[in-house]
Amino acid sequence: MTMNSTMKKWLFVAPALIFLLMGCGPNIVVHYIDKESRTPNSGQLDIYQSGEEVKRPYKIIMIIRGEDKRVAANRDKEQLKRKIFAKAKKLGADGLIIAKTGTRDFRMRDGMGGSVPHSAKYVQIEAIVYLDK
Questions:
Q1: Distance separating alpha carbons of residues 109 and 12, to the nearest angstrom
Q2: Angle of CA points 125, 86, 48, to nearest 5°
Q3: In terms of CATH, what superfamily is 5-130?
Q4: What is the pLDDT of residues 32-78, one digit of tens each?
Q5: Cβ(80)–Cβ(121) under 8 Å?
């Protein structure tokens, strides 16, 4: 019994696609506004939903955006936030303002010459340092 060419393609493409979607972690990109080098924050990281909530003078030192394109069963927006928060602490931020969260829809190649709809969770924060410390 022989397999047709479409079936052979799927036997090759499907495991590769599943591995790609499930094996890759979130993508985190840092855009530096302030080039000053800082020591990592070993204390508390203050989290704000808007800039108006911050009651101390501050400046934004970087914008960090994380996006997770993995299949829905493996995505968790809170896990993505925790990874971004850890990155901000490592880079010396005192606090974070959560600027945007949501889902971005796009089309992904299916390996057969077409594409399928897909979505990615994203979180964008503004990392801040306090000016009165």
A1: 15
A2: 40
A3: Hypothetical protein apc22750. Chain B (3.30.110.70)
A4: 998 898 999 999 999 999 999 999 999 999 999 988 876 654 556 77
A5: yes
Gap between the Cα atoms of 69 and 87, Å rounded = 19
Count CB neighbours of 21 within 10 A.
Answer: 16
Look up the pTM and report it. Answer: 0.69
| 100: its two tokens | 């945007």
Of 36, 47, 46, 123, nearest to 84 by C-alpha is: 123
| Helix and strand counts by DSSP (H, E) for the chain | 2, 5
Residues in the chain: 133
